[in-house]
């Protein structure tokens, strides 16, 4: 019974870890407010690192995760990747900040 409880605790800790990385990534994308600074900040290079970290985690744990762990990890990674692509496309479509300032 102790082994089952230990496995459940480890699964909960793994899910919490993955979800905390996803939350960090969403903050880096400017999708949610940074609770420390109370501001929306974008760090696209930072979210790239978070995506790479989750990708590495998926590769290193392949075959060793429960279905729910694998599903949450895959969902977090997909969500960050899709939002990252959206932000990169939006950044390319927007005029540079100095060009907007020159028009005024």
Task: Give me the secondary-structure topology.
Layout: H1 2-28, H2 44-61, H3 67-93, H4 97-103
Explain what you see.
Helix 1 (2-28) runs antiparallel to helix 2. The chain has helices spanning 2-28, 44-61, 67-93, 97-103. The protein has a domain at 44-91. It has 4 helices and no strands. The longest helix has 27 residues, at 2-28. By secondary structure, the protein is mainly alpha-helical. The termini are far apart. It is 76% helix and 0% strand.
Number of helices: 4
Query: Which class of secondary structure composition applies to the elements?
Result: mainly alpha
What is the helix content? over 70%
Give the N-terminus to C-terminus distance in angstroms. Answer: 70 Å
Beta percentage is: under 5%
| Gyration radius, rounded | 18 Å
Total strands: the figure is 0
Please, what is the average pLDDT? 91
How can the largest sheet be summarized? none
Pattern of helices and strands: HHHH
Poorly predicted runs? none
Shape: elongated
């Amino acid at each position: 019974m102790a082994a089952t409880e230990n496995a459940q605790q480890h699964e909960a800790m793994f899910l919490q870890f993955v979800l905390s990385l996803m939350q960090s990534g969403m903050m880096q994308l400017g999708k949610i407010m940074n609770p420390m600074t109370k501001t929306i900040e974008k760090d696209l290079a930072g979210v790239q690192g978070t995506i790479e970290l989750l990708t590495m985690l998926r590769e290193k744990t392949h075959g060793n995760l429960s279905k729910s762990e694998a599903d949450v990890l895959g969902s977090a990674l997909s969500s960050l990747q899709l939002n990252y692509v959206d932000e990169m496309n939006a950044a390319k479509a927007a005029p540079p900040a100095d060009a907007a300032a020159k028009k005024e």
